[in-house]
């Protein structure tokens, strides 16, 4: 039976002074502050000290998605500017296939100045390896809050991924209140990013440096990567007074069979780097439960829909869920599981997968803050008050926290 308990979003708002929002990253990633919440006690260190404060036996799960240069500036034949913001691929629907396409593709996009684009193609011109390329866009049907846009270009030697990487700009968050700059291409990207697809960075990972990663490896701390392509919906505030009436955005998750095997060997001590990683891990647990309940039958892109977890049986252990997913991979000869999730984690949710969470400081009244409140309860208020009093920098380019509730997974 679905949970009908009202969650007043007003209880998850706080006053965030504009001066506390980090407009730019620090020169050195690991010089950010690290708030340590450990069994209710709060202190702070530098992020570079993370290896020293991680619990014994901890291992880290990262979101290895890569931010694409999603904002594209086109021109109509009349000279009017049209901005197209790529959100997710439609044809081909697979991210990597779309980026590797050399003949054309279509995407769900937001369109700026759409009223001035009645019909016909718009274009932009860029230069790749000394060759001038013209990219054309054609507006099709409305799709939700945007449009279906078909792209084609005049030189099949180049892929769509190459073209937007060269001609687009970094989709930095709107609350930074500035245009993207050249430096954002590198700094709004984790050092371990691999798979193109996000229009927002998994910001908890922006603090890691290669030197830190090497130190952790030498200390015996293990890493594992999965992928959740972060969508623009991450910036959509909860507007409903009852947070349970908020429509959660869908995002694509990719998890390898090797990751699942590693997790089965090390069920305890998993620290999620970021809310996107947490959402992926918890969604994966519910996908395994769905399979155990007979809800998966080899469909091409399974999905965890919003609040579906509240209707699934909750008695399965994490190990049972992961073993079911491994069997699913074996049955359908899969090296990885690709699925969509609209899982919304709110106060009252029981976590099944993680022992700790590394994360930044989030917007008032956001789904990300609701996840934090679900993880550490009402202590989120103490954490955020401490951060505000001690001059922590907030949001995407801000400081970080390590949240260790000191309680067993349920």
Description:
Helices cover 23% and strands 27% of the residues. It has 410 residues and is an alpha/beta fold. The protein has two domains: 9-66 and 188-404, 3-Layer(aba) Sandwich (QueA-like); 70-168, no CATH class. The strands form three sheets. Strands 2-1-18-17-14-3-12-13-16-15 form a ten-stranded mixed sheet. Strand 8 and strand 9 (131-143) form a beta hairpin. Helix 6 (257-265) runs antiparallel to helix 8 and helix 7 (275-292) packs across helix 8 (318-331). The longest helix is centred in the last third of the chain and has 18 residues, at 275-292. The model has no long low-confidence stretch (mean pLDDT 93).
């Amino acid at each position: 039976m679905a949970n009908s308990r009202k969650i007043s979003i007003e209880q998850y708002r706080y006053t965030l002074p504009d001066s506390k929002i980090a407009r730019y990253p620090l020169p050195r990633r690991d010089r950010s502050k690290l708030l340590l919440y450990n069994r209710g006690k709060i202190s702070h260190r530098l992020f570079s000290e993370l290896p020293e404060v991680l619990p014994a036996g901890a291992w880290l799960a990262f979101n290895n998605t890569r931010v694409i240069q999603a904002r594209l500036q086109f021109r109509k034949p009349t000279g009017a500017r049209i901005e197209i913001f790529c959100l997710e691929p439609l044809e081909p629907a697979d991210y990597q296939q779309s980026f590797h396409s050399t003949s054309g593709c279509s995407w769900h996009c937001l369109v700026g100045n759409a009223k001035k684009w009645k019909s016909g193609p718009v274009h932009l011109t860029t230069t790749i390896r000394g060759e001038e390329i013209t990219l054309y866009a054609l507006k099709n049907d409305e799709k939700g809050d945007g449009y279906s846009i078909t792209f084609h270009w005049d030189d099949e030697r180049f892929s769509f991924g190459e073209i937007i990487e060269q001609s687009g700009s970094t989709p930095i968050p709107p609350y930074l209140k500035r245009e993207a700059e050249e430096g954002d291409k590198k700094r709004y990207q984790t050092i371990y990013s691999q798979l193109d697809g996000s229009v927002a960075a998994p910001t908890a990972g922006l603090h890691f440096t290669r030197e830190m990663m090497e130190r952790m490896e030498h200390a015996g701390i293990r890493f594992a990567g999965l992928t959740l392509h972060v969508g623009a919906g991450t910036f959509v505030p909860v507007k409903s007074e009852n947070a349970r009436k908020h429509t959660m955005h869908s995002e694509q998750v990719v998890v390898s069979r090797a990751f699942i095997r590693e997790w089965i060997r090390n069920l305890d001590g998993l620290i999620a780097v970021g809310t996107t990683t947490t959402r992926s891990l918890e969604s994966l647990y519910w996908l395994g439960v769905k399979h155990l309940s007979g809800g998966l039958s080899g469909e091409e892109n399974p999905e965890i829909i919003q609040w579906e977890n509240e209707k699934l049986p909750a008695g399965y252990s994490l190990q049972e869920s992961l073993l079911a997913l491994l069997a699913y991979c074996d049955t359908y000869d899969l090296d990885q599981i690709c699925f969509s999730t609209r899982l919304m984690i709110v106060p009252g949710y029981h976590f099944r997968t993680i022992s700790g969470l590394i994360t930044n400081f989030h917007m008032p009244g956001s789904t990300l803050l609701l996840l934090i409140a679900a993880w550490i309860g009402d202590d989120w208020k103490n954490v955020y008050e401490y951060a505000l009093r001690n001059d922590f920098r907030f949001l995407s380019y801000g400081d970080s926290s390590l949240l260790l509730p000191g309680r067993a997974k349920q």
